[in-house]
Write a structure and sequence with these properties.
The protein has 627 residues and is α+β, with helices and mostly antiparallel strands. Strand 8 and strand 9 form a beta hairpin. It is globular, with a radius of gyration of 29 Å. The protein has a six-stranded mixed beta sheet with strand order 13-12-15-16-7-23, with helices on one face. A five-stranded antiparallel beta sheet has the order 2-1-5-4-3, with helices on both faces. A five-stranded antiparallel beta sheet has the order 8-9-10-11-14, covered by helices on one side. Helices cover 33% and strands 28% of the residues.
Length: 627
């Protein structure tokens, strides 16, 4: 017999087409356009969930099952999907599609027939065009105004980085032009090694709801920061709600997690109960504690739970379970399944993102693209993790070893998940302190550097070296290191009571919440510093490109090279510092010396430092003119 003509026709269809049969949806035919998306994998005769297992958790396979089970077609536009390719990469594409039941003559469902169009290029082109559109830029500016107001009035300035937990949050506005809503979340780390988590919802929208929410958040934060448990903190908020009409009937969930034991105390004051997703990706809603909304005359009984290492606790607002076209029960079940897939890494491909962050961003995306949403959505996740180990290293008293210290410290900061701005401040401050200590250490000596993350989310780093360190002097091109360090971090103390000097810096480290739909980059990664400084002449003879670290070990060479190229400061020179990864006080002193030579000869020295670069940040701090 020749080939099956129906299968041959399906294969030649000029669009994505798939035919599957039976309860397992065994694939009978697939078009070449569909095979190209899958990386030409062998799918004929295999159950759909086996052949396309990497789509599990992304909503596609559930849609096929629903059509087979109910006989009701499902359609979607611009759905995003990630599919593994033969070379190990993961391809992202968008598709418009329709999944329809394949019916027997008697009306029973035999299988499914799915057809679609790959619209990836169209979506990418549209997104690119939107970025350049004047009207969209105006819309983004309006959205940014709303987001800024939310950040100031509703949301914490940053989520703490803690030694035994990873915390993440996402906030999705109901619309770019919508007035600020009444949802909020908060994370309050405490010296006792516990972390208080809050998600609440004030009735209404607009300025009034925002103001009431801000006051409620302040009451709860104050009580929780003072060590109160869920019941005591909610009782204080309840007293406030009885006096302020706009706060009545506000719902709040407060949970206190012991980062050491994993014990959780929580109270659901009229709010949906938390969702627990185990490290293995198994979801379970916790039992409501039985408390009513604020200001309604009830009490606040507390329930208990326990988190193992790797478990994720999710608090959320009701916008995620009150989506259009879903009952609360169906939406809750869907939320649990999608969140579990995101936590376990079974949804969209994001191996470098923590399970807590995947739960907050992917869950919202996968749910609302199916149903849309009417209300603001807040999703807050805390994953219990193994404690971050402290760092200890001894640096030989040799300036050439400062690069190795930056690399060691950078690795520790990356383990802690410190974002770019905080990492920049800590790296520079520690570099200045270590330089000072090394310069005053005896030959063959060493400087001890230790780092730890405190229960309050503060990076505490000590630099201990022998001998008295140089104090900042008013008239000097050196001695800037301690002054610069104190400007970069929250706190810097010096202890000279022993035989040497111990400098301790403390800096609160945080990560931003995901404000979904807002324009702008995500959290910056911690960059690994280069180990060598390079100076290269550009095509323009009067411009020099400087790259790499400029510290105590390389500053003298920088000064020599730049003065050589400017004939001792007698001819104009432009130094492009955009490639500089680290600009220490020794480098600042060298630039000041070069600038002084140019001023003496009345010639121009132009320092180029683009916004966001390490050089720009330091030059602004030390008031050295730059472009």
């Amino acid at each position: 017999m020749g080939p099956d003509p129906i299968r041959s026709a399906v294969e030649q269809a000029p669009f994505v087409l798939l035919v599957a049969e039976g309860p397992q949806l065994r694939i009978l035919g697939v078009s070449r356009a569909a095979l190209a998306m899958t990386g030409e994998r062998d799918v004929i005769g295999r159950p759909l969930r086996e052949a396309l297992s990497d789509l599990a958790g992304q909503g596609w396979l559930d849609a096929y099952d629903e059509v087979y089970r109910t006989g009701v077609p499902v359609a979607g536009q611009r759905w995003r999907a990630h599919l593994a390719q033969p070379d190990g990469s993961v391809r992202e594409f968008y598709a418009d599609f329709s999944i329809n039941p394949w019916l027997e003559p008697d009306g029973t469902v035999r299988g499914v027939i799915a057809g679609g169009i790959d619209v990836t290029e169209i979506v990418q082109a549209r997104l690119e065009a939107e970025r350049d559109a004047d009207d969209l830029r105006e819309q983004y500016r309006q959205a940014r105004d709303v987001v800024d107001a939310l950040q100031q009035a509703l949301l914490p300035r940053g989520l703490p980085l803690l030694p035994g937990a990873r915390v993440a949050a996402s906030y999705l506005l109901a619309g770019a032009g919508t007035a600020a809503g009444g949802d909020w979340f908060d994370a309050v780390p405490r010296a006792s090694g516990t972390l208080a988590l809050v998600v609440g919802d004030v009735v209404g929208h607009g300025v009034t709801a925002s103001g009431v929410m801000g006051q409620l958040r302040a009451v709860l934060q104050d009580r929780l920061d003072d060590g109160a448990g869920p019941a005591e903190a909610l009782a204080a908020a309840d007293r406030f709600a009885r006096r302020v009409p706009g706060a009545r009937a506000a719902t709040v969930c407060v949970a206190v997690l012991d980062l050491g034991s994993g014990a959780v105390e929580y109270c659901t004051a009229g709010h949906p109960p938390p969702l627990l997703v185990t490290a293995a990706g198994e979801p379970r809603f916790l039992a409501p504690s039985g408390a009513g909304p604020l200001g309604t005359g009830g009490t606040f009984p507390v329930a208990t739970e326990r988190l193992d290492v790797g478990d994720v606790l999710l608090l959320y607002s009701d916008g995620i379970i009150e989506r259009p076209g879903r009952t609360v029960a169906a939406a809750s079940g869907e939320f649990a399944r999608v969140a579990a897939a995101a936590v376990a890494g079974r949804a969209l491909h994001a191996p470098d993102v923590s399970p807590a962050e995947r739960a907050c961003t992917q869950t919202v995306e996968l749910l609302v693209r199916t149903t849309g949403y009417r209300d603001d959505i807040t999703l807050f996740a805390a994953q219990r993790s193994a404690p971050v180990e402290p760092m200890h290293t001894d640096v030989p008293a040799d300036l050439t070893h400062l690069g190795a210290l930056r690399k060691t410290l950078g690795s520790w900061l990356e383990t802690v998940a410190v974002t770019g701005e905080d990492a920049f401040a800590i790296q520079h401050a520690v570099g200045e302190l270590a330089t000072n200590a090394v310069e005053h250490a005896p030959p063959g000596g060493s400087v001890a550097v230790t780092a730890r993350l405190t229960p309050l989310g503060v990076a505490e780093i000590t630099v201990a070296g022998p001998g008295p360190w140089r104090e900042p002097r008013r008239v000097s091109e050196r001695g800037r290191g301690l002054a610069l360090s104190s400007q970069l971090v929250d706190e810097l103390t010096m202890d000279r009571s022993g035989r040497g000097t111990v400098a301790t810096l403390r800096h609160r480290v945080t990560r931003p919440a995901a404000l979904l739909g807002a324009a702008g980059p995500g959290p910056a990664d911690v960059a690994e510093p280069d180990e060598l400084m390079s100076i290269v002449d550009s095509e323009d003879a009067a411009t020099v490109l400087v790259a790499g670290p400029v510290d105590a070990a390389t500053a003298e060479r920088l000064q020599h090279e730049l003065l050589y190229r400017s004939r001792g400061g007698t001819v104009p020179l432009t130094a492009d510092l955009s490639g500089v990864t680290h600009l220490a006080s020794a480098g600042v002193a060298a630039l000041h010396a070069i600038a002084a030579r140019h001023r003496a000869h009345d010639t121009a020295l132009t320092l180029l430092a683009p916004p966001g670069s390490p050089a720009r940040h330091v030059l602004a701090l030390v008031a050295l003119p730059h472009t």
